[in-house]
């Protein structure tokens, strides 16, 4: 979990309490949160998820499992409570309702209850250390600031948000097809990015080194303002990159991003792309064409599209047998569109990550799950906000079952999706794993006892 | 006389059977002269040190292979050829005793022995490799003809991506859970499908090495326990003094204990940054002054460096606060950043006193978007590097030498040349730690300052 939010520290989103009648002004404040945690936040679902089947009655259930998970709460006055742990669903729920945290983070499952950590040494046998943790990814659109012109910093709009959609598609496919993971949850981070939780047992038991390896497998963009070329393909592409390019990235770049970001429309912008081509003769040829070619006879065709075609033709014309140019087109496409992950988040098991269904304090939006098969549908500007949900609660049917008030609201869709697409299949698989593991263990003891 | 008690082994086969590459599973049941104990260990240490230096200079795998062959030949031959294997095994186990005693020592030894093992494996014949694979009991399975045909196109793509020859019809590939070959996964050097990596014969070294590393890592912990509980005391008059002397002989100063704390005050920092900071730290320092902010990687690299230079914690807090407040405000600094500075000085959390990063660590870091840490000789484009060196006052002739070193990936040599150019004096030892650069620089400049006064 990074403590650095963007420098937008202004308080203009905070408004004092609800005003007249049923009108709930937009904003984010502790009173709204109290209602949210009281009536909408899916405590039971989070508990079930985090228990991974250990809350059942099967003999193989580990009763200590949930209690060894770290949660952390950020309170309203920026007080930060780490190493919170709970032994039951009600303890979790009561603590959240009582403390009303503006943010809830989820950490790893430790070897012992985090509350007892001081009794344990740092090394040797009796150690306090993470033993299980989901494989997580954090993609933040501010990491793309050098390639989006519509927004910068914490802002997001419908022109640049598709970069996140593309990232989800590339990573999700790889996690399933390449790594064989099944239980994957994608979540909107509430403002400017997405989080991914891979929850298979195999994933939870990965070591730091293995996580680092997966993160590096996904790493393509290398560098920052100090280096020149951020994407470099010295040789033909690995099958994973080939698939990402042909199935997602090329089409996205050529049919969406080129136009929505006007990548070639000004000198400053096309120079940025030219700086990615390591051949003077090519770049000067193109520059020559574009400097004079303000408004040419090709005014019917979009200038970005036209110049991109020119660039591709020049590079692929075969005139250039120079080494570094063979995959220049791919390098440019990847530089703009390929997912940029925060390596540190994924590499360390003890890294904390915000829990789904939290409300983002700066936007008031709820961190709802995203369906990777349908990720283009997510519009960050219409994700339910805290105040909207409260309004829906107030105007909703009061005869409905008190337990499932979220069904009255737009949150209902998200919770239903969470359950059917993610939680149920996950718990089913956990149960199966537990049962087969248990059977195998019984068999083993039987075998060792027999003479 | 037996040196160490042998550990339980699963098989009864003698240590030095078919392959000349031992598994080091259990200590030899041999008589060893005390003299040989020390000499064998020193010879092996010379090999490990050679590997360590070469890695720090960024030598390529092909160069490393040759280097290891030469180092081994030069140091590990025994006058009686039949005793070669015993020397190998004995020296390894002696060094286990020497390097098991702290986390840092273990880490270094583990890295070097793993590198040594890797290159010795690569130098062996296909037959030896195959035999060793079986000894290691790895969770991999050769793929069938059908599986090969199905995956052929992808396997060819991978081979092409690394300029390797395409797999022939009778090529052997092993299917292995991806968790077993993290380095291959990280480098995208294998085709992965549904959780299994398709590993070529020549890559099989990765499997072996991972297992070797894991076994050795566990063994070192056990050895440490044995050492502290029985051996050290038992061998007080005989082996212990030798073991303790051996460990001092390599890993130079780590700058975790600064000699004079408080020697540097905040007002000196700007001037010191210009005169005595290595480029990596100067860049971070300048960016901090410019942006009034640094991301986590930069805060760690620069913060620990300043600690090593002698900046007291109170001064460090004041310094960082003065900068960060201009960007995020004093209150936010206190809430969000002060804690980690205190953490660096060992005043929070588990109270580890963190060591300033060495060049090796800095060179291998991976700065991303918005970061300014890392090694400029490695991470900057040539153009940016030239500009930065120019600002440091490096003349045009020296600059060409530096850039030449960088092109050959000799980053620390490049930094050494920079040092020499800036200070107009030679640095024979070579730079391998930013704090070393600083203290060497300080040594040269201080007497001048005193004379001037």
Automatic annotation (TrEMBL), chain A:
Protein name from the UniProt record: DNA primase
Organism: Citrus sinensis
Lineage summary: Eukaryota, Viridiplantae, Streptophyta, Embryophyta, Tracheophyta
TrEMBL record, chain B:
Molecular functions (GO terms): 4 iron, 4 sulfur cluster binding; DNA binding; metal ion binding
Protein name (Swiss-Prot/TrEMBL): DNA primase large subunit C-terminal domain-containing protein
PANTHER family: DNA PRIMASE LARGE SUBUNIT
Family designation: Belongs to the eukaryotic-type primase large subunit family.
One GO CC annotation: alpha DNA polymerase:primase complex
Record-annotated DNA primase large subunit C-terminal domain positions: 270-438
Domain of life: Eukaryota
CDD domains: PriL_PriS_Eukaryotic
Cofactor(s) the protein requires to work: [4Fe-4S] cluster
InterPro entries from the UniProt entry: DNA_primase_C, DNA_primase_lsu_euk, DNA_primase_lsu_euk/arc
Alphabetic keyword roster: 4Fe-4S, DNA replication, DNA-binding, Iron, Iron-sulfur, Metal-binding, Primosome
């Amino acid at each position: 979990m990074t403590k650095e939010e963007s420098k937008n520290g202004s308080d203009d989103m905070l408004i004092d309490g609800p005003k007249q009648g049923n009108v709930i002004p937009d904003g984010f404040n502790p009173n709204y949160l109290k209602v949210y945690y009281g009536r909408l936040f899916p405590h039971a679902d989070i508990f079930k998820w985090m228990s991974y089947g250990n809350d059942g009655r099967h003999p193989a259930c580990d009763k200590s499992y949930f209690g060894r998970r770290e949660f952390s709460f950020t309170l309203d006055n920026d007080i930060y409570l780490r190493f919170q742990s709970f032994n039951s669903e009600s303890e979790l729920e009561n603590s959240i309702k009582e403390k009303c945290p503006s943010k809830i983070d989820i950490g790893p499952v430790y070897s012992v209850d985090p509350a007892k950590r001081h009794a344990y040494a740092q090394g040797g046998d009796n150690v306090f250390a993470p033993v299980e943790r989901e494989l997580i990814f954090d993609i933040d659109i501010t990491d793309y600031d050098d390639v989006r012109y519509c927004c910068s910093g914490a802002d997001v709009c419908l022109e640049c948000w598709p970069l996140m959609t593309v990232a989800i598609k590339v990573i999700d496919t790889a996690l399933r097809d390449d790594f064989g993971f099944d239980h994957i949850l994608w979540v909107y981070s509430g403002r400017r990015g997405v989080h991914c939780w891979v929850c298979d047992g195999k994933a939870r038991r990965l070591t730091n080194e293995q996580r680092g390896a997966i993160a590096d497998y996904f790493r393509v963009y290398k560098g920052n303002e100090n280096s020149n070329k951020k994407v470099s393909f010295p040789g033909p592409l690995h099958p994973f990159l080939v698939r990402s390019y042909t199935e997602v990235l090329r089409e996205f770049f050529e049919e969406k991003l080129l136009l929505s970001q006007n990548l070639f429309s000004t000198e400053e912008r096309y120079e940025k792309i030219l700086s990615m081509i390591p051949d003077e003769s090519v770049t000067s040829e193109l520059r020559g064409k574009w400097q004079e070619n303000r408004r040419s006879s090709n005014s019917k065709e979009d200038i970005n599209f036209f110049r991109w075609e020119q660039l591709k033709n020049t590079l692929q014309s075969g005139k250039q047998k120079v080494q570094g140019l063979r995959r220049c087109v791919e390098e440019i496409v990847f530089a703009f569109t390929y997912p940029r992950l925060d390596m540190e988040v994924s590499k360390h098991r003890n890294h904390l990550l915000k829990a789904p269904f939290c409300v983002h304090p700066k936007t008031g939006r709820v961190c709802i799950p995203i369906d990777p098969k349908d990720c283009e549908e997510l519009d960050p500007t219409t994700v339910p906000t805290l105040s909207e949900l409260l309004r829906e609660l107030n105007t909703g049917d009061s005869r409905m079952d008190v337990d499932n008030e979220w069904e009255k609201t737009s949150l209902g869709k998200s919770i239903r999706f969470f359950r059917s697409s993610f939680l149920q299949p996950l718990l089913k698989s956990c149960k199966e794993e537990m049962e087969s593991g248990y059977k195998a263990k019984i068999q083993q003891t039987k075998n060792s006892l027999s003479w | 006389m037996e040196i160490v008690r042998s550990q339980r082994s699963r098989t009864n086969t003698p240590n030095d059977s078919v392959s000349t590459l031992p598994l080091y599973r259990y200590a030899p049941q041999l008589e060893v002269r005390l003299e040989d104990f020390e000499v064998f260990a020193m010879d092996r240490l010379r090999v490990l040190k050679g590997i360590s230096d070469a890695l720090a200079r960024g030598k390529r795998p092909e160069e490393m292979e040759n280097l290891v062959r030469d180092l081994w030949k030069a140091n590990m031959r025994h006058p009686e050829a039949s005793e070669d294997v015993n020397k190998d095994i004995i020296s390894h186990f002696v060094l286990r005793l020497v390097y098991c005693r702290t986390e840092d020592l273990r880490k270094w030894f583990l890295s070097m022995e793993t590198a040594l093992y890797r290159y010795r494996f690569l130098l062996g014949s296909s037959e030896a490799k195959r035999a060793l694979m079986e000894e290691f009991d790895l969770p991999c399975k050769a793929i069938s003809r059908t599986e090969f045909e199905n995956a052929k196109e992808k396997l060819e793509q991978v081979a092409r991506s690394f300029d390797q020859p395409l797999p022939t019809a009778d090529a052997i590939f092993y299917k292995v859970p991806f968790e077993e070959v993290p380095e291959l996964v990280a480098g995208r050097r294998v085709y992965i499908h549904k959780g299994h990596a398709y590993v070529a014969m020549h890559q099989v070294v990765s499997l072996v090495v991972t297992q070797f590393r894991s076994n050795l890592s566990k063994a070192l912990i056990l050895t440490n326990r044995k050492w502290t509980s029985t051996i050290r005391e038992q061998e007080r008059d005989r082996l212990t003094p030798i073991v303790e002397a051996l460990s001092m002989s390599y890993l130079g100063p780590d700058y975790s204990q600064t000699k004079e704390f408080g020697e540097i005050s905040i007002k000196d920092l700007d001037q010191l940054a210009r005169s005595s900071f290595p480029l990596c730290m100067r860049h971070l320092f300048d960016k901090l002054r410019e942006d009034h902010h640094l991301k986590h990687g930069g805060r760690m690299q620069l913060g620990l460096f300043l600690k090593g230079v002698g900046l007291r914690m109170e001064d460090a807090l004041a310094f960082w606060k003065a900068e960060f407040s201009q960007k995020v405000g004093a209150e936010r600094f206190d809430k969000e950043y002060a804690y980690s500075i205190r953490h660096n000085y060992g005043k929070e959390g588990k109270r580890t006193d963190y060591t300033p990063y060495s060049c090796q660590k800095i060179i291998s870091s991976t700065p991303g978007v918005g970061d300014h840490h890392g090694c400029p000789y490695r991470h900057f484009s040539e153009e940016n590097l030239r500009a930065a060196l120019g600002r440091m006052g490096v003349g045009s002739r020296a600059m060409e030498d530096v850039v030449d070193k960088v092109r050959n990936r000799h980053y620390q040599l490049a930094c050494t040349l920079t040092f020499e150019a800036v200070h107009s004096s030679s640095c024979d030892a070579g730079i391998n730690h930013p704090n070393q650069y600083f203290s060497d620089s300080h040594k040269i400049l201080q007497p001048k300052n005193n004379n001037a006064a």
